[in-house]
Amino acid sequence: xxxxxxxxxxxxxxxxxxxxxxxxxxxxxxxxxxxxxxxxxxxxxxxxxxxxxxxxxxxxxxxxxxxxxxxxxxxxxxxxxxxxxxxxxxxxxxxxxxxxxxxxxxxxxxxxxxxxxxxxxxxxxxxxxxxxxxxxxxxxxxxxxxxxxxxxxxxxxxxxxxxxxxxxxxxxxxxxxxxxxxxxxxxxxxxxxxxxxxxxxxxxxxx
Length: 207
Description:
By secondary structure, this protein is mostly helical. It has a domain at 98-169. The protein has helices spanning 2-17, 35-47, 64-78, 87-95, 101-113, 124-130, 140-152, 167-176, 184-195; strands at 54-55, 61-62, 98-99, 138-139. It is elongated and about 50 Å long.
C-alpha cells in the first residue's frame, strides 16, 4: 500500500490546491484518479508476469515493455479510450519530464542551504531556473547543468546532489543513464500520470 499512498499524496495535494470538492475533475480540467482506479494499477503491477517485461533480481522490477503491457491492461479494465504507447513513445515521454520553477526551488534550496527557505537567499534557485530560458519548465539535463554549476562554484563544496531522494529526480536520473528498470512505486507513478495527465504534475511535455 505504500506506493499507492505516495500516488494519493501527489494527487490529493493537487486536488486541494485546486480548491475543488465533490468531483474528480479540478478547476484546471485535470481528472484525478479514484482510489479504485489506483487499486487497479497496483493490482496489474502485482499480477504482471510476462518474462519479456520483467527484470530479474531480488525485487520485482519491470522494463518499458512491462510498463506498456500494464498500461494496456489498465486501459482495458477502465474502459478508457487512451492510446497504448509504444516502447519508444514511453521512452520519449520519460526522457522529456520537465521541472517547474517551484519544483526547482524545492529541490535546490535544501541542497544549497539545508532548508527549503532562507531569508534573503531563497530566490537564487529561481534565478538559476530563469537563466535556462524555459519558463514553462526545464528538462532534467537543464537541472543537471544548474546542479553542476552549483557544485563547481563551490556553493555546496563537495556535496553530491541526492538525485534518488525524490521520486521524480530518481526516475529522470535513471533514464539519463539508460537504466530502464522500474520498481512498483515508480511504475504506478508513471502509469498514473500517463492515464491522468497532470495529476502528479510530472510530465508536462508528452508530445
